[in-house]
Amino acid sequence: MLWTRIYYTKHQEVLSRKTSLKDIALKIEDIDKILVFISYISIPYNISFIFRPNLRDEEDNKFVELALVANARYLITSNIKDFHHDKNLSFPDLQIITPGDFVKKWREENEK
To answer: Is the separation of the CB atoms in 81 and 69 below 8 Å?
Structure first.
């Protein structure tokens, strides 16, 4: 699965940082269980093209590529500024949103 091959290690590295563990109040074992679950339920997508939005951080381009291929409505990141550095670069059907804003939006739409 694409999630497993590309993102599992990156997410594990970020979520296992001391600051992340403190912020989310979880143990490394919990992080591993969550990532295994996400890998289990994820839908595999093959990117048959390379779309380079040329973001500031080259590593971020693959997140946009995957979101576009998957027809995602949201790309959820705490790193919003790196996805908006070029005003000419826009993704009309893709909202780049923070985790907190996404949770608020999800609750507004689903907890009525």
So the answer is: no
The answer to whether the predicted template modeling score (pTM) of the entire model surpasses 0.70 is: no
How many H helices and E strands in the chain? Answer: 6, 2
Q: What is the pLDDT along the chain (112 residues), one digit of tens a residue?
A: 444 455 667 777 878 888 877 877 788 888 888 888 887 888 877 777 666 667 878 778 888 888 888 889 999 888 888 887 566 667 788 899 888 888 888 888 888 7
In the block, residue with structure tokens 């994820």: 42
Give the torsion sign (CA, 34, 39, 45, 49): positive
**Do residues 87 and 64 lie in contact, with contact meaning Cβ atoms separated by under 8 Å?**
no
Q: What are phi and psi of 18, to 5 degrees?
A: -55, -40
Tokens of 54: 């040329």
63: closest CA among 20, 5, 6, 4? Answer: 6
- What residue ranges in 1-112 does DSSP mark as E strands? 74-76, 95-97
